[in-house]
Amino acid sequence: MIDNCLGAQRSRKIRRALRHCKVTIFCLVLTVVVLRGTIGAGKFGTPGQDFAEIRDHLYHRKRAEPHRVLEEVQTTTATSSNENAGADTNAGTNNYNEFDIHKILLDEESDDSKRDPNAPYSLGPKISDWDEQRSRWLKENPNYPNFIGPNKPRVLLVTGSSPKPCENPVGDHYLLKSIKNKIDYCRLHGIEIFYNMALLDAEMAGFWAKLPLIRKLLLSHPEVEFLWWMDSDAMFTDMAFEVPWERYKDSNFVMHGWNEMVYDQKNWIGLNTGSFLLRNGQWALDILDAWAPMGPKGKIREEAGKVLTRELKGRPVFEADDQSAMVYLLATQREMWGDKVYLENAYYLHGYWGILVDRYEEMIENYHPGLGDHRWPLVTHFVGCKPCGKFGDYSVERCLKQMDRAFNFGDNQILQMYGFTHKSLGSRRVKRVRNETGNPLEVKDELGLLHPAFKAVKIPMKEK
Amino acid sequence: MIDNCLGAQRSRKIRRALRHCKVTIFCLVLTVVVLRGTIGAGKFGTPGQDFAEIRDHLYHRKRAEPHRVLEEVQTTTATSSNENAGADTNAGTNNYNEFDIHKILLDEESDDSKRDPNAPYSLGPKISDWDEQRSRWLKENPNYPNFIGPNKPRVLLVTGSSPKPCENPVGDHYLLKSIKNKIDYCRLHGIEIFYNMALLDAEMAGFWAKLPLIRKLLLSHPEVEFLWWMDSDAMFTDMAFEVPWERYKDSNFVMHGWNEMVYDQKNWIGLNTGSFLLRNGQWALDILDAWAPMGPKGKIREEAGKVLTRELKGRPVFEADDQSAMVYLLATQREMWGDKVYLENAYYLHGYWGILVDRYEEMIENYHPGLGDHRWPLVTHFVGCKPCGKFGDYSVERCLKQMDRAFNFGDNQILQMYGFTHKSLGSRRVKRVRNETGNPLEVKDELGLLHPAFKAVKIPMKEK
Question: What is the ipTM of this complex?
């Protein structure tokens, strides 16, 4: 009996010790998370600032790991029936930049162990005649043309966010402002929007989820000529700038970046996949297939990450991300893809916020919308800011403040159409700058955005 | 010296008493607010449920008053420089349904005393030849036609919300889901969206702010044939239903409602102004001018409210709202407006959520999208729910839970296009219901929403 008691006692001690270990580990992780969160991060957009960028990007990317562990701890304690938004306090980590369609595709395989890591990953059944299929469809469906004007392709802008409320509540407010911003630009430019909100598995598959979504949309919408992927933390800051579609008539993939940084240096930030154009066609399916293999979560992505860190310049150690993988793909298979890839740097298809937001007043003073470049950036991209995630420090405050300014900077260009402007770039309030008139149609808005040429229907309606 | 001490003492006592009074009043107000918030509210959409609706609507509308007082108390303590969203904890009350463009128009007159209550309110300079101005413009701009297909007018859907983060953080998440829902419907139906986020003065001008915004948009966009106003708490639940534009060819104003309830009973809920169609033209400007006079905040709106309560059936006592004012306007000036107003009840241009949301599963079982009516409502409108405002009680939980269900109900119709569906109406998670294929264009989505007829361009492009 005494032996049993001792055994039971010891067993309790062991269990207690294990619990303590778990708690200790949890606290340790939490500490790491908080520490990571307090370290500033940012990503520079010009070649000459590589080192600062690498250092900052390191912290930005690395922050992903502790969050993931933390999420796993949280989800084991949250009840699976706890899906009512009102009571859902364990919302989990939300990746403000990404969404995870792996959750869509593999939802029935929600248990990691079901996915055979040895089975080669596939985005879907191999298709080799997409150009032909698409061409035939377009002929049979002239009422769904892939060009809506001369030099004006049909464009679908794709973005999205988690279906769960942000951990940081103000994050949803910024997602809302961000989509309003995109709605405004796209309305002016005759671009349609697809906002994806499929269940997000933030840190698990993160960046990679856009691949299956993009493939699905290209194949479902043959009428779409260009798919424009845009991160939810990227905002339009030049409402008047029309993408120079003609420039890309021989290209299939347009990203902001620099040839030398990708092909010569294999620099992991030689291009940005937060805002890019992908032409619908067989080539797109092929590059998606070539891009995808480093993505599958777990061992594959870990190992691929090591390869990328070893092969790319300046890349820190972390799992494979879609951007690094694209640099690697292009740098090592230039002959296969290079001729159809356009690395654009004449304007900010993606513009790193860090070097732009403090200059808005200067831009207003010296320049005007329609330039799209460093003088008046098309896109201001808040890489490194995670307003949807946990709140905390000065740098996040800077992020939010600057996101407000960027939003207002773009919004002013919309408001001026109607005779208003924000009181300042930091203010939600607006003021009138043009009086009402009895002849509204004689008044032209300064930027000509009310009825811009790039939106006009080229072939007039024959009949009502 | 003793006299001075006594005087100083008494003075301190008086000041302390005053402070106590302020605190007492504040607490009293807070108590009232909380009490109001715990009283359930809802609004029924069928004529036979008038009494329940009135009772519930009473509490819904009345809740506005205590919030306003509370907001004033809060704003006197908040610092005016506290505009950084990250630190803005005194976000103030947000009216989830409305926005306030009065703030836009009168921003320089932010002090109430500057606005002369005796000066007649005006939405802008009187215009009497808008049909002629517009007609001329359309002729001169054939590349901006007001009809984009036979029987297919150019429609602009207008909605919006506060530029401030919601008091209740989860509110922004629902605003985000709501706009995604509208983006989806409008993309399928070739409708453009204008999302207004001008500074909101929720309880001050609330419902009325849509009038100046609508006027401004009509006059700025002569190419828009119909302006569709839709509250931010209304969601599309029938993605396949196309508004029967032909039905309204002789009408200028379409609202959900019943003739007998408006013209015979003068029932204050005989129509709903949360979702309506307004045809661009002189008539619209005229009715906006006739509608506006009861709106100006303060004495005018208070007194107008008394008139409306006295004149309309079942209306509780509170300041004038735009909906009651429209009932009154139509009922008393039927001969002036009635022939161009279509009170629609054959489908749910506005559908009260209370009688719809518990039937979604039954609808899925028995019916299909495309009906738009009680069998499959076009719009589910969450009147009475204020997720952007203060959180608290069971009924708000019901609101959020039902809003999730309504969102998923609509979202399933989008997801099925791509072979997916939500695991249940209450779940964010999705599951695959159609396998990937190597011949995606041979697969038709069940509802035919990938390339619906109502979106096709009727005149094909002549050249690329």
Answer: 0.78
